[in-house]
């Protein structure tokens, strides 16, 4: 009997030791799992902090350059604010786009931002330019020479690189290429400009020659220059369209749909090719 009790006691002691070791192993596994979870959580937090840090850095850079992105002003918030602004504008002013919902990307190009830091506040001011009720059409002035028989050409002297004319052809502005570079292009043929330029009356008899050409007014005070004739090939705004100046006979080879044709041109004119030519 004593031997049986001794054997049972040995088994109990062995079981107790085994349970202690098992408990320690379980605790180690739990500790390891906890450590892994904390490591994963810390990594996720650090990743989010890096993302926030990069976002703040990008936002600060954009603000410094006067730009606004969707993280600073989300699209849904911008859409709501524009609807409020549009409903409060006077009749002679309007937003610089026709469709707010479809042209939000264009509006972000026009937004300007300023910021100021106070003791407890960081204030961001976002502005959007408004446009008048009279749009202007921009014309590029390209003087076309008149070719003489002695290989000379006479060209009208223009006063400006570009001319902006209102839709009723009542007023105009003279522009340079530098002026257009400061405008913002929101569509292939639409510019938003903030120009400190005088607007002149087109009915004035002192208008430049290029303005007279637009209004079909014949002016006698145009200045012409005479020079040696040079062949020119000028790309126009319309696709596949060129203005040519050919002092003598010029031969063109045109390839359309795999077929080549030869065309003779002379003097000045406009050449328009097919889309696939």
Automatic annotation (TrEMBL):
Protein name, UniProt field: Uncharacterized protein
Key words, A-Z: Coiled coil
Species for this entry: Spodoptera exigua
Stretches assigned to coiled coil: 5-32
Keyword Coiled coil: yes
Pfam families in the record: Baculo_F (PF12259)
Source domain of life: Eukaryota
